[in-house]
Structures are given as C-alpha cells and as structure tokens.
Amino acid sequence: MTLFDQIQSDPFASDRQRMVEYQLRGRGIRDERVLDAMARVPRHEFVPERFHAQAYEDHPIPIGYGQTISQPYIVALMLEALALEPTDKVLEIGTGSGYQTALLAELAASVYSIERHAGLAQNAERVLAKLGYTNIVVLVGDGSEGLPQDAPFDAIIVSAAAPELPSTLVEQLRDGGRMVIPVGPAHAQELQLVQKQQGQLLVSYLEGCRFVPLITGQGYPSE
Ligand code: SAH
User: Fold this and answer.
1) What is the pTM of this model?
2) Where are the domains of the chain?
3) Mutate-to-test residue for ligand 1 from 46, 75, 116, 137, highest number of ligand atoms within 8 A of CB
C-alpha cells in the first residue's frame, strides 16, 4: 500500500501519528510495542461520528451513558506499566468504548473485558468485530468481582476508580502478574501498579489521575 492509498483509506492516519509523537513519545512513553499499537488502532472508530475529527486530541470525549473515552496519554501510561507479553491473558474492567480493549488485543494473546452498561458493551463489540479482532471476549456485568472462572490472569487493567485496592481482583492475578488501577476518592486518584511476586504485593505509584468511579460491589456504593 502506498502512503497515498493509506491516506485515502484512513483520513486520520496523520492525526494519529501526531498523537503518538506529541502526546505520547513527547511526554515520555518509550515502549515501542505500545507506541506501534497506538499508531495502528483507529481511535476515531471508537467515538461517536460527530467527534471523529477530535478523536486524536488530548481531551476526554463523551461515549454515552455519562462515560468518556480515556485520554490517550493515560492509556499509553497504563499499557506501558502492564509490560504485556504476546502470550498474556488479560482482564480489563470497564470496556467503555472498546479502544483500550483493541490495544490490549494487539499486545496480548487474549482479552476478557467487563462493562456494566450493556449498550456500551454492545457498541464496543460491534466496532471490535468490524476491525477484525478475534481474541476478545466482552462481558456485561460488575467487573469489581473480576472473572473467577477464567482466573488467574497475567495482567489486570481497571479503567474506573476504586476507593481502595479490590482484594477480589488481587486474588485473580497470577504470581508474577501485574495490575494497573486508579485508587482513591472520586475526585482525584493515584494510578497504581500492583505486582504480585511470590505471594507478596509490590505497589508503585505512576501518576495522579481522574477516572469515572467503579460502580457497586467493592467499588463506590452508587453513581
Ligand atoms: N478504557 C475505556 C474507559 C471507559 S470509562 C475507554 O477508553 O473507552 C470506564 C468504564 O467503566 C465505563 O464505561 C463504566 O461504565 C465502566 N464501569 C464502571 N464501573 C464498572 C464495573 N463495576 N464493572 C464494569 N464496568 C464498570
């Protein structure tokens, strides 16, 4: 395919490249696998059509049900911290638009993603199928319970804020596994990297962040 064909078939290719250079590489994201995946996945497909032209900008975009697609830099930071191997089995909580789900599918072997809004889950499934992903299972439910029947996971990524580290999810992480999760009160949280090593938990703090709340179960009591 020539560059001309690429631009013809994807009018957002240059916006996407700019996002990778300025918002990601420019702010210190170094993992080439993550940068490559973000240069490939068509983020605009995951936002409502009227927002296509803003899909590569550095701000949140509404995706319906009061939810927003995560900022590209935060997605990159979380993926880099997860240090995924191509053989990994991943659990994602909060599918939302499905954008990060697609990136996980590019970087790992299989992805289980849980979303509490059936409408968002259906929409994400539709876009992910259209783009040809076959290693993703999207489930509707309360992700704070995890997915015991498919545990343990090599990596767990939580895209909604928990008041504290959910022990149910920690239990579903295999030894040597990594979890990235925003932890803290509703208005401001810390992005944490949790590593399980010989039964011990190693917690490091990545950055301050602000996510929508993780609802029910071990999450916040109400929306
Ligand atoms: N990474 C997604 C983020 C979407 S926002 C994206 O970029 O599109 C976070 C999502 O978490 C929302 O869609 C919200 O409905 C979902 N969510 C909140 N609490 C949840 C829970 N307990 N179980 C599953 N999904 C949950």
Assistant:
1) 0.95
2) 58-209
3) 116
Residue 159 Cβ < 6 Å to ligand 1: yes
Tell which CATH classification among 3.30.9.10, 3.40.50.150, 3.40.50.300, 3.90.1150.10 matches the domain 58-209: 3.40.50.150
Residues 6+ positions from 165 with CB-CB distance below 8 Å? 181, 183, 192, 194, 203
pLDDT of residue 87: 98
Give catalytic status of residue 159 as yes or no: no
> Chunked in runs of 10, what are the mean pLDDT values of the chain (223 residues)?
59 95 98 98 97 94 94 97 98 98 98 97 98 98 96 98 96 98 94 96 96 77 56
Beta strands in 23-165 (DSSP E): 61-64, 67-69, 89-93, 110-115, 136-140, 153-158
Active-site annotation holder among 14, 70, 113, 167: 70
pLDDT of residue 24: 98
66: region left, alpha or beta (phi > 0 left; psi from -120 to 50 alpha): left
pLDDT score of 81 = 98
Q: What is the pLDDT of residue 10?
A: 87
